Amino acid sequence: xxxxxxxxxxxxxxxxxxxxxxxxxxxxxxxxxxxxxxxxxxxxxxxxxxxxxxxxxxxxxxxxxxxxxxxxxxxxxxxxxxxxxxxxxxxxxxxxxxxxxxxxxxxxxxxxxxxxxxxxxxxxxxxxxxxxxxxxxxxxxxxxxxxxxxxxxxxxxxxxxxxxxxxxxxxxxxxxxxxxxxxxxxxxxxxxxxxxxxxxxxxxxxxxxxxxxxxxxxxxxxxxxxxxxxxxxxxxxxxxxxxxxxxxxxxxxxxxxxxxxxxxxxxxxxxxxxxxxxxxxxxxxxxxxxxxxxxxxxxxxxxxxxxxxxxxxxxxxxxxxxxxxxxxxxxxxxxxxxxxxxxxxxxxxxxxxxxxxxxxxxxxxxxxxxxxxxxxxxxxxxxxxxxxxxxxxxxxxxxxxxxxxxxxxxxxxxxxxxxxxxxxxxxxxxxxxxxxxxxxxxxxxxxxxxxxxxxxxxxxxxxxxxxxxxxxxxxxxxxxxxxxxxxxxxxxxxxxxxxxxxxxxxxxxxxxxxxxxxxxxxxxxxxxxxxxxxxxxxxxxxxxxxxxxx
Length: 550
Known about the structure:
Strand order of the largest sheet: 2-3-5-6-4
Strand content: 35-45%
Number of helices: 3
Number of strands: 34
């Protein structure tokens, strides 16, 4: 079995100035040079409105949010205590439990030995959404992100935050892991019946969804359910109903009334999303299916009717068929995360260990090349590495209407380098937003804000058919916590989009450390920020606000 590494590191991590010096000395340009020049001036650039920290003396991160009609930006996140202290007196909902500062946990290799960084210090596991201290909070910000209007915190250890939404009336909805203390938050609290079928995966065993008033000062209602669950998620559909994924799928109206419940199609595990237009469900994953000559990891993408019955089975071609001499699309491939846009088009991100991947074919026709406009990235010359793909599919006929491979390129050798995508979302204007991690050689746009080496955590924005790169930037010191597990690569970013004072915008949200620990030692990028210094703890919340209007 070939190993599935998130990405591989190469010895190409050299300063950009040295790379340019080699180029000016007469050596042929690499694809790193070619695409860096191509996207130095994006055809449809976005504008960075704000980039900066939001944190106090404890450990915090941001996970979701939304936009209210008066221009207020709602940020939802997690604090691990024992203090929040964002500089504004917080409203506390519920009864606090005793809490102490979280202890760091050392990373260990497969043999159980501590992992050591390049400075000889132990590597630390990132804090994550289901930490026992996880406590949700909301910060309501002015449109320029310079002023905190209010801060609301749940009672310590009552419930974390893995998802958030804001409706047209400004009501705020949160979901996440819960404890029994979730019932102390106030408002109308009801326990929902446990699911009939138990999930095989268990990031948590108790989930909640709650509605707060637009000023976040009070809880209107809380619904909670016990049962093994991945990170809870929520979304608003086209009819204004709430799709809530906990141990199963449930639909609620805005009054908190449960309208339906059903098991997650296909059982526990995998990654699923609900189409906001017609209620169909996409579920992705992978399984092993030897070609007869080599091991093969086969991607799966199943579409289910709203009642949970199977509608379509896509990409899941047999290993022996994929391995035929007239195909040989034998690069291990997996679909790692799915989502939908407001029009009901399906978006997914995929991984492969080479360029001969079925991800480049139509979902329902292995003999047809997918019609991706793409960015021009190619994988020729690659060895074994990790490539990513971002793909948009028309759900009327399940044909590709946009997409691109995504990879880095070595600076001095004309070969691809590894990259992964961990979070994907559609923006209010149809742009495609994603985040992940890259080896050195990330292709950045001229409006990048990282300021250091082109590698590590990154964010990117493509146009609607993924044929133009609007923004790409390394984000040093960012993406340092596990926001949720909505993808196989464990998402380190939340992405939110909507209208802010009439303009389409996107928010990239995460936890950020004081300084970077890979490639360079830069601090988190800062643009028009209200908080000039790191607050403390392991991470502060971090927000990047982009203006997508053309």
